[in-house]
Amino acid sequence: MSAAEAPPAPPRPLVCVGALVRGPKGTYLIVRTTKWRGSWGVPGGKVEWGETLKTATMREFREEVALELHDLSYVQTQEAVLSPEFHKPAHMLLIDFLAHTDSERVTPNEEIEEWAWVTLAAALEYPLNSYTRTLIERARELEA
């Protein structure tokens, strides 16, 4: 069988990053996006070739909400395997960080439909995707 006749390689899991970001007033940024079927989450996206996880997280925040991050710390890794919450079939490794920003001025890109700066307790009242809910619950444990 020649290379041209070989079946296509199966898709691979995507490595994605996101962060729960604390602003200067002590509240956290959550966003409603097109990619999570209207549920609320945190900004983030795919890691590009040659990027570190932290660099990818900082780039995604600049692209999606025009915020600069600092003091990133790893929290957890979650798996989203063909989640019906996501807008298309995907197998993602979601690498979550906590971070800080010095500004609450959000300039959204086309993916962001709405945003809010809220306390962790208030965030749990929003219709969050399950992965963001897990991240916020973990952040509350770490704050305690």
From TrEMBL:
Transmembrane segments: none annotated. Keywords: Hydrolase, Magnesium. Its cofactor is Mg(2+). Coiled coil: none annotated. One of its GO terms (molecular function) is hydrolase activity. Residues 11-141 form the Nudix hydrolase domain. InterPro entries: Nudix_hydrolase, NUDIX_hydrolase-like_dom_sf, NUDIX_hydrolase_dom. This is DNA mismatch repair protein MutT. It comes from Deinococcus ruber.
